[in-house]
């Protein structure tokens, strides 16, 4: 095994220019294909789900963080385009620290929603600690 590795390494060192040309061509072809391939092959999806994170000061106590999450969830629920909200606080697989809470916001069907993203409206109505961290709706730009 070591002998085969040594022979292949020797071959690479003997053909450095050839390999650099192949590498450069690979980069050029990759950029060309990125530009040329139509982006319409990737369909836009609207799953109607927004995930968010509520963060607080690292020294926050659990009851305070729980109240903060309840306030954010109540504000998000007031949006007519939100079908449901679920959230949790505490340390776990997706929450590394106590000062973070995870939100899952389920939106109404896309045909019933306006063009303005619900995440922006919900977070503008929520307390200042609310900020949508990712959105799987194609219309969300938060």
TrEMBL record:
Keywords: Membrane, Transmembrane, Transmembrane helix. Pfam families: ACR_tran. GO terms for molecular function: xenobiotic transmembrane transporter activity. The chain crosses the membrane at residues 20-37. GO terms for cellular component: plasma membrane. InterPro entries: Acrflvin-R (IPR001036). This is Acriflavin resistance protein. The lineage of its organism: unclassified sequences, metagenomes, ecological metagenomes.
């Amino acid at each position: 095994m070591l002998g085969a590795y040594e022979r292949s390494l020797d071959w690479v060192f003997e053909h450095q220019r050839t390999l650099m040309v192949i590498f450069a061509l690979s980069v050029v072809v990759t950029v060309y294909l990125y530009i040329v391939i139509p982006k319409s092959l990737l369909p836009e999806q609207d799953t109607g789900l927004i995930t968010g994170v509520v963060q607080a000061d690292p020294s926050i106590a659990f009851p305070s963080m729980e109240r903060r999450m309840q306030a954010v969830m109540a504000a998000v629920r007031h949006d007519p385009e939100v079908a449901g909200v679920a959230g949790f606080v505490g340390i776990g697989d997706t929450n590394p620290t106590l000062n973070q809470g995870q939100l899952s916001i389920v939106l109404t069907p896309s045909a019933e929603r306006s063009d303005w993203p619900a995440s922006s409206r919900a977070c503008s109505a929520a307390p200042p600690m609310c900020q949508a961290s990712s959105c799987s709706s194609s219309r969300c730009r938060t």
